[in-house]
Amino acid sequence: MAKDKEKFVREITSRDDDFAQWYTDVVLKAEMADYAPVRGCMIIRPYGFAVWERIKEEADRRFKATGHTNAYFPMLIPEHLLQKEVDHFDGFAPEVLWVTHGGDEELAERLIVRPTSETIINTMYSKWVQTYRDLPILINQWCSVFRWEKTTRPFLRTVEFLWQEGHTVHETYEDAQEETLRMHEIYRQVIEDEMAVPVILGKKSDSERFAGADATYTLEAMMHDGKALQSGTSHNLGQNFAKMFDIQFQDREGKLATAWTTSWGISTRLIGGLIMVHGDDRGMVMPPHVAPTQVIIVPIALHKEGVQEKAQELYDSLNGRFTVKLDDRTEYSPGWKFNQWELKGVPLRIEIGPKDIEKNQVVFVRRDTNEKIFVPMENLADQVDEMLETIQKDMFQAAKKRMEENTFTVKNFDEFKERMAAGNPFLKGMWCGDEECEAEIKDETTATIRCIPFDDKQEEIDTVCVHCGKPAKHMVYYAKAY
Amino acid sequence: MAKDKEKFVREITSRDDDFAQWYTDVVLKAEMADYAPVRGCMIIRPYGFAVWERIKEEADRRFKATGHTNAYFPMLIPEHLLQKEVDHFDGFAPEVLWVTHGGDEELAERLIVRPTSETIINTMYSKWVQTYRDLPILINQWCSVFRWEKTTRPFLRTVEFLWQEGHTVHETYEDAQEETLRMHEIYRQVIEDEMAVPVILGKKSDSERFAGADATYTLEAMMHDGKALQSGTSHNLGQNFAKMFDIQFQDREGKLATAWTTSWGISTRLIGGLIMVHGDDRGMVMPPHVAPTQVIIVPIALHKEGVQEKAQELYDSLNGRFTVKLDDRTEYSPGWKFNQWELKGVPLRIEIGPKDIEKNQVVFVRRDTNEKIFVPMENLADQVDEMLETIQKDMFQAAKKRMEENTFTVKNFDEFKERMAAGNPFLKGMWCGDEECEAEIKDETTATIRCIPFDDKQEEIDTVCVHCGKPAKHMVYYAKAY
Question: How is the subunit organization of this protein annotated in UniProt (chains A, B) (predicted)?
Fold first, then answer.
């Protein structure tokens, strides 16, 4: 059964040749996910799920540090609740799944498999909120949601996906707005600081905002093919849901007031983004902060005296401080192992063989740059720590540089179309604020307004709209999107 | 709005007067859960969910330490998959929920909302398992499952509940059996050592075992009313699912072999057990290891100079090492706060007032015994730690003593019926091993065989069955159950 003469078969399509196929290959071969025998659903395999657990930990820690608690609300929602908020219902109705029978019986009222939980959660909030002293309510839920999508791809768009949805209630518009932006910033931290994925921040145009929201704030990341991925959203729901679901409270003056609510979410879609930002032709590349395994130790010439012992010693000195694995399988050659752990994207490989032991050193090999570095054995854990932080920063910087290099300023629609035809860039350009004009741009180029950046990032590129030539209201980012 | 003259309204029915109503009162008033506007479903509120998070952490940590990883499988299962294993399907069919429509379309094949995931997971395992080198597969999933139950009660029996389900594949029967018992032991640790709930361990009789299993091992806890609660189960599934789902592998001799599988689960039902074992007429009583808040600091005479500062100092010295809250609200009196935190079951209350500051002491008040202890301020954190461990142990011992005092040995059926009529005891008695005899006992007394204890706990009470008088096969525990 020895594999030392077997060739490692990677079977990954080149990223430049066929980006979509490359993506699917990486998802499957790195065992991030698999197709399920249920239309449009996926299995999140242990290696992919471990990434989700890391993202979850990083997000949950920040949610709790800002006063949020977790809870669980039912997955099945009676039809009449969803219909209460008409805009919201219209937004989701075409893609909801319906439970109609329990055992052999037809149900008295059909149940919706939750596409999102505003309706059921706000129903409870109207019961729980009595006075201003009950506010704010800051609850989050980790769960799965369902959208009966026609075209699906693992992580990016699936019928069922895992997410968290935060739902909060506040006394004032200002409190709700502050919360909306606070969570938006927490998402930025998780995505940029932990996943090493740079994002463009801003507000959605009216046509792209969440059904039932007053304002939706987004984080848009650029994939390796240049397309945008909406990576998280935070919604100021104004009083829309509070009015429909009667969330009223006695205010500080003793008067009855209507509350203000928010909701916000990130999902397993982030893992799709992680792959499409960092992955390469050898497979996955994991940023150290969310890597299921941060360090893989591969002993060279395992049969030579002292190698196994030294490798084990290394492992023991790193384990606990890092997530580390020792690959001391005898049926695979070191080369085979290198390939396998590269495919999995483990950020740092440590090689140790008889020569290294002699010189009291180990070899670091970085997954992101393939760089090989000889490192003295002293204070190894500190050096590993430093190296992982360097990899984390470099991966972020490389992705950021790529995004910047693929972002262009356009002043007129010819330039716009030319740039868009030449690839999938992010285009910074002016917009009149008119929905029809936005729709025309989409029709002609398939690019959409990804976001209206915050005021401090607005640039006055021109005074008129890049498409219609009417007076411009904002600078926006245009891009094709997943 | 000052509450200092308001009476704290507890509104909890006496446990001895009406156990069922007492339970519901505690669930609702302690804000563990609330009824949902969906038949048979509940909302797990933040305080109840925090207990689940603690249980989850304790279980998950042990799963991972024994080599298991988490994954996620779809919640919707195509009808034909569930029908593959006939025994299994028959067991669940009457209570499954059916998804029949997506948007306006009727689905080509109906989908089941998972009641448990053996069928979908084993379908994937048959694809993933090729050789003995792929084994064992040790995967766990945290998710929610659905049973269209007629009669429901928060935590104990709900249409949707949260659980974990482990699903493993092994080379041999012995490996599967070892795994089944390993997880059974981990459940014992979580339930006894963390939740302070003593359990009787053993195997289920054939009529009570999981649909499709060769053997089901259970953990049975005694509630305060004497009834049993099945608190976790671990199943050796033999080759039943492996055969139906074609989980075959090349064995060490190069021959094609059929695998052996297990599954095991605990659920939010455990929280119902926690309430019914430890709760009292003042509300919830949390064992320190799973308490969302372990220590509540209540300052006395907050308006007096130095009290707020000293209370804050205490908080700072304990926070991080324990989950601690400082209740420095000015609109509630100390007495009101005592009542509220007692209702919530916080294991340790620390009071600090001007007199205590003078004497350089604090007051500990134990939730479980109501005991008041004056404690010098030196090394307070260590003393808190010790006190919490004492409470944890004492709670377990108190519950164990109660269980033992309410467990009786019976030698004949008159004694059996007499004991059962006088309360809800656990009865140790002999059994012939016959299913019909078991069914008759149930018909006549509503008591069932909770488990057949392991060999080392078997006692030869008699040589004949307590009911039919035929030769006895085992000593078993009989009880009425939730």
Answer: Homodimer.
